[in-house]
Structures are given as structure tokens and as C-alpha cells.
Amino acid sequence: MNKQLALAALFSLSCTISNTSYAADEQPVLFTADLSNAGATASPSPIPFYPNECAKLPAPGSDANALGKAVLLYYPKSKTLHYAIAFSGLSGPAMMSHIHSSPNNAPIVQTFCGKPPPDVNNLGHSGHALNGKACPLTTEGFLKGEYVLKGNPSLKMTPEQEEQQLMAGELFINFHTCKNMPGEIKGAIVKSTK
Ligand SMILES: [Cu+2]
Asked: Which residue, 14, 54, 96, 138, shows the most beta carbons closer than 10 Å to its own?
């Protein structure tokens, strides 16, 4: 994994955390995610989104070097997940970025950026976009923030179930682009072993 991306994500996360106060006994759990190029092989849940918006953008470039790295800290008592994601080499701007749940056709449990997909009810969109209704119009950059787990109300997934899936490594981060609508870079959120 690209070391510079990882360091950038870590630094970004530390800036986020240092602005938030927690009880001294609130021990966070560290997670990471390596986002690699999923390309056209994609996903169990292809998302047909907004071809008209893609038509307004320049033609996509290569996705051969698309990758990302995420560092996340989870505070169990408050069910708060802090995240910092560095990404680079995308074929074009991300149209949407989410955390998906692995089982059951990969429903969305949280949106980082982008409009909800048109079939939002089937996918069970959860939560407003944390980093804006449009993703950065760049092929590299950062997303960071925090959210309190809400599960997926439209699929009746509870926050406790989302937490269980997080702990079990069953949630994954996905960046959708016009070239690779089902997902250009994606990676499971897994507990750090260090
Ligand atoms: Cu997604």
C-alpha cells in the first residue's frame, strides 16, 4: 500500500480526533481499509446512477493507478466512527462514495459524498452525505469526518448490527466513478492488527 497515502490519512484522522473530546475510559478500536482497483469486475450491487451527470464531465482517464487508504477509529460507547480516507489515481471524480454492508446485496449504511442513488429505497440509503452532496471534483484527495452508527433504517438494520458487521470486517468502503459505476476502488474495513 502506498505509504504516503496511509500517512496522509493518519495525519488527517489525528486532526479530526484532536478536535473531539471523549471520556478517558472510552477506548477506541483502530481499523484500516486498503482500497484497491475493483475496475469493471465490480460488485454485487451495481448502482445505475445519473448518466446525464457523467455526460457533463470530461471523458474518464485511466483507472490503472486508482487506490486509496483509510484509517478509522471507532468509539464503542458512543458508537461513533471517525474516518480519514486518502484516494488517488481515479479515472475521474467520484460520483458517490459510501460504506456498504457486505451481506444482502451490499446495501449502503453510510454516504460520504454524492447524491443518493436513484434506487435508494432498494439499497437502503442511511444518513445524509457527510462530505457533501457532490464528491470532490478531483481524482485525488481526502475525505474525513465522523458519524454515529445508525444501521440502515429502511432495511431494519440496527446500529448494533452495523457495529457487529464493523467488528467482523463485513463493511467496505466504495468509490463509484463514471468509468466504474459499481465501484472503482473498494476495500473492507478491518481491525488493525497492531
Ligand atoms: Cu456505494
From this structure: 96
Span 5-48, pLDDT tens digits: 665 666 666 655 555 656 666 789 999 999 998 754 555 454 55
Task: Please check whether residue 177 is in contact with residue 94, taking contact to mean a CB–CB distance below 8 angstroms.
Answer: yes
Question: For the segment 127-147, what is each residue's pLDDT rounded down to a tens digit?
Answer: 788 999 899 999 999 999 999
Which candidate, 72, 88, 109, 98, places its Cα nearest to that of 190? 72
User: What is the rounded CA–CA span in Å between residue 133 and residue 158?
Assistant: 25
Ligand 1 center–CA 45 separation, angstroms: 8
CA of 186 to the centre of ligand 1 (A): 9
> What is the Å distance from ligand 1's center to 96 Cα?
6
Q: State the DSSP code for 131.
A: T
Written as one string, the DSSP assignment of 44-85 is SS-----HHHHHTSPPP---TT-EEEEEEEEETTTTEEEEEE
What spacing in Å lies between the alpha carbon of 191 and ligand 1's midpoint?
21
The C-alpha cell at 59 is 471523458
Burial 49-78 (b: 16+ CB within 10 A, else e): bbeeebeeeeebeebeebbbbbbbbbbeee
* Torsion angles phi and psi, residue 6, rounded to 5: -65, -45
